[in-house]
Amino acid sequence: MKSRFIVTPILCTGCRTCELACSFTHAKDGKVGRSRIYPLNGGFKDLYVPVVCLQCEDPACVKSCLVDAIYFNENTGAYEINTEICVRCMACVAACPFGCSLFDTQQNLVIKCDLCGGDPVCAHFCPTKALTYKSIAV
Amino acid sequence: MVTVTINGKLVRAKEGEMLLAVLRREKIDIPALCHHEAVEPYGACRLCMVEITRKEWDGWKNMVTSCLYPVADGLIIQTHTTDLIELRKTILDLYLARCPNTPEIQDLAAQYGVMQTSYEQVADPNDCILCGLCTRICDRMGFSAISAVNRGHGREIAPPLKNAPPDCVGCLACALNCPTNYIKYTDIGHTREIWGRKFELLRDAKTGQLTITKEFAEYLSKHRVIPQDYFDLNDESHRKETALSLGKIAIWSREVPQ
Amino acid sequence: MKIVSPKQLEQLAAEYKKTADRHKKMVIVCCGTGCLANGAQKIVDAFAECLSRRKVKDFTVEAVKKTGCHGFCEQGPLVVIEPQGTFYTKVKPKDIETIIEKSIENDEVIEKFLFTNPKDGRKIEKYPDVPFFSHQHRIALRNLGKIAPFDIREYIAVDGYKALAKVLTTMTPDQVIDEITKSELRGRGGGGFSAGKKWRTCRNVPSDVHYVICNGDEGDPGAFMDRSIMEGDPHSVLEGMMICAFAVGAKQGYIYVRDEYPLAVIHLQKAIADCEEHGLLGDKILGADFSFSIRIARGAGAFVCGESSALMRSVAGEVGEPRAKYIHSVIKGLYDQPTVLNNVETFVNVPVIINHGADWFRKIGVPKNSGTKVFSLVGKVRNTGLIEVAMGTTMREIIYDIGGGIIDGRPFKGVQTGGPSGGCLPESKLDLPVDFDSLTEAGSMMGSGGMIVMDDKTCMVDVARYFLQFLVSESCGKCVPCREGLYQLHKLTIKICEGNGTEVDIEKMEKLSQQIVVGSLCGLGKSGPNPLLSTIKYYRDEYLAHIRDKKCPAGVCRNLITYRVIPELCTGCLACITACAYHAITGQKKEPHVINQDLCEKCGACVAVCKHDAIEVS
Asked: For residue B254, what pLDDT band results from cuts at 50, 70 and 90?
């Protein structure tokens, strides 16, 4: 059994509550963070897809990082960026084919979804349960 | 796990961890200008020096650079003794003689009550404090495009023979991690210029927004096996593409488990 | 030819001794760097040329031997006629014909080439009677001036590699280390750390690979001890390293030599090649289960590369910068492996200790400072050169008995020991025994053994300025206190030399020096302020004279001196007028001249040409 972050686009209304939740969760030194999740139009009317890091199996971001700042967190199943090590070269931002490594100009950090350390706040706030974090059999 | 005493307080730390990391975690304000987690500790700025002793040393004390000193069980650490503050003041005073107009140094010096250097200012001051972060990060990333040249007071950071560096890919890691923003670069149009070399910036195929340099993308695809076409779009366009393709699947399957 | 057993080495030694003795007469020409500069090679060529023209009974060109430095560089080129031991100094190529005719064919002594004792004006005939040599105790320099450095046979003939054979056949590594520890041999590179303890620590580190490095990066101004040893007796260095390698379990050794010593590099390369050929380096040395090879690492001459961590980085091909080492290089040194790093002189002492035993060695010198120390005696002393004395010899003996006193009988002012990291000691410290602890206590240090003697015409502020300038340009520039601090100290000394100093500056320098000592990353910075601190301590008056009276008592600092013609002594010879490039001197023939102070650039050219000492400096 492993916990997985599950996105169900069909339930998403595009209310962008998740964005707010994400920004405020990652606020630091009085500055809100840039959201790591983006509900975008999925090509059909009223279809929204919350685009967020897929925590790939062979991630391009890890491969592209020349200083080994991105590492796998065994407990949460998320790839996290150690911002202390990160040198902000933007290699991962450019390399991610899903655009889920991004640069926060406010906090001056490269960021990506870290599943909030094992308890994604956006899932709590999603009014339609389009975002859930639950245990599934692998 | 080991236990150390920091300013009279017992603190637990991981074995082999550097003292500075423990001090930072304990929210003790220790200045350090040449430290970065991505690279090996260097010990050049000498600001992070602390005083250590042990019970069995019978009052003998030693001053060490905390960025390089591995913690060990039973260490007794003082971070702000008069001697240490005096040392930091002297070092900041010396820094101010070299970099009198650098805001970062001015601020730090002011924190220690040094408003103006008491020494003779160098003839041609600039903002470089020679912390070596740029060269070490460049080495760590595997480019080694720049290096410290000359010795002693005439030391400076430069590309080989002060020509456009052949190994540079224009990633800007040196400039972005410079503690005093001394390393200058320009992004004009879709050309980036740094260290006297011009680089072509890649543009997003849809919106035309700039991403990384062509050289950097080529390096990543060659040495890190990232398909070249990943670099055709920037992160925003990538997200839009992802939404569109996932949207199609969602309509079709009604659920997308990740 | 490979030597496969200690027994064979013994036989070989006996055989080579015979070969060496076959010449009835021998001529030894010193070919150390000093003598070569004075034309020693031309002397050797002259012998060859002369002997090709004339036949001399019992004497061929093979009996002319080029050896390493004798030490008495002041009097070079040196020629010794053996077996009488007649000692000729300042020999010129044109004199060779006479020497062959008189000294070799007819056993006569040629008076004019003999050394004159400056004390009583007597001529001294025999080599060991010269006071310069008779007061010395030579252990590290035992073979210098006796054997030809280029020939391994000569080294074997003087019981070379006997200690190695002894170690390999009769001793265990632990016994070797015990012996060295018992001898109380301390590292001769400057720090004076016990060699035995260092070896023991290295041996105890569990690792497959251990390294032995010989530090031949001698960068102190005016020091040439290691250079002379490497040039004149390279095999002793190799033997010492082999014994060390056996003791600590190393298979690979490096000799770090600065490339400014080309002769040392050539001689060491030849010695290593010879050893490999004779089976003294490589696999299964002397048939024992011991393999060792040595490589030469040539340094580009940065002073800081003498520091252990910088040296090891340089050997590994990185930039020669020190790194902070809270883990000692003995435990984690070259390529992060346990490494023994000792100075050339330390290694040279090792074979002697093994051969004669630790107790014999400990009897030499003073307690805790056993053995001898090599110094390069330079500066304003009559007999400059390379000397070796037992530890605990007083400074007075070194300077007055061996050195022959100060040039022109001027008063002694100070002696600088330990190079740029050492300090200046005044006359009151002349009776200080020279050993590691006494010198450190007096505020100087042993260093690698440079000794610069200064007379009353040396300005101590200027000396401090000079050494600081040296350190400013030799500092690697990595850490702030050394890079910026020494630079500021240098600026402050310049300020005082120019007469713009204030008394606050002295305090400021002392305070800054303390912080540099505490804050610097490596030994260069930590000991960098020593010359300044010791001169302030012992010659404070001189600093104050520069500051308060705006005068340089020694007459060195240009801004603070004036040249004046003494009218009573001036004969009006016009010599100074011609010499002055700035046309600052005016006057008529046979009338006292006058120096125009506005034009005078204080170059001192007039003083040099005045035969009547009519120009005074004040």
From this structure: low
> Is C232 within the bounds of a domain?
yes
User: Inter-chain contact A8–B255, Cβ cutoff 8 Å?
Assistant: yes
Which neighbouring-strand residues pair with B149?
A: B156
Mean pLDDT of C211-235: 91
Interface test with C, best of B90, B102, B128 (most C CBs within 10 A): B90
Report the candidate in A116, A117, A125, A120 with the shortest Cα–Cα distance to residue A15: A125
Using a CB-CB cut-off of 8 Å, the residues of chain C touching B150 are 477
Average pLDDT of the segment spanning C543-556: 91
Inform me whether the pLDDT recorded for A99 exceeds 80.
yes
Would you tell me how many other CB atoms lie within 10 Å of the CB of residue C4?
14
Condensed to tens digits (0 to 9), the pLDDT of residues C370-413 reads 999 999 999 999 888 899 999 999 999 999 988 888 988 889 99
Taking an 8 Å cut-off on Cβ atoms, the answer to whether B152 and C519 are in contact is no
Contacts of residue A135 in chain B, CB cutoff 8 Å?
Answer: none
Q: Report angle CA C447, C450, C454 to the nearest 5 degrees.
A: 125
Nearest residue in chain B measured CA to CA from A85: B38
The 10s digit of each residue's pLDDT in C487-510 is 999 999 999 999 999 999 999 999
Averaged over A113-118, what is the pLDDT?
A: 90
Return phi, psi of residue B222, to 5°: -80, -50
CATH 3.30.70.20 fits A2-133, yes or no: yes
CB contact, 8 Å: B158 with chain C? no
Q: Which domain holds residue C578?
A: 562-617
Q: Inspect the interface and report whether the beta carbons of B137 and A86 lie closer than 8 Å.
A: no
What are the Cα distances from residue C89, in Å, to C29, C86, C133? 10, 10, 14
CA atoms within 13 A on the CB side of B137: 27
Task: Tell me, yes or no, whether C72 and C44 share the same domain.
Answer: yes
pLDDT band at B258 (very low <50, low <70, confident <90, very high): very low
Q: Is residue C141 part of a domain?
A: no
Q: Say what the pLDDT of residue C17 is.
A: 87
Query: In the B/C pair of chains, how many CB contacts fall below 8 A?
Result: 92
> What's the pLDDT tens digit per position in C354-379?
999 999 999 999 988 999 999 999 99
B65: which strand partners? Answer: B49
User: How far is residue C129 CA from its own chain's centroid?
Assistant: 23
Which B residues 42-101 touch A at CB under 8 Å?
none
Does C309 lie in the same domain as C180?
A: yes
**CA-wise closest residue to C504 among C476, C555, C460, C544:** C544
Best B238, B249, B251, B256 member to test A by mutation, with max A CBs in 10 Å, is: B238
Check whether residue C102 and residue C250 sit in a common domain.
no
Domain residue extents for chain B: 2-80, 133-240
Q: Are C30 and C305 in contact (CB under 8 A)?
A: no
Do C449 and C494 fall into the same domain? no
Asked: is B2-80 a CATH 3.40.50.700 domain? The reply is: no
* Distance in angstroms (rounded) separating the CA atoms of residues B161 and C277: 43
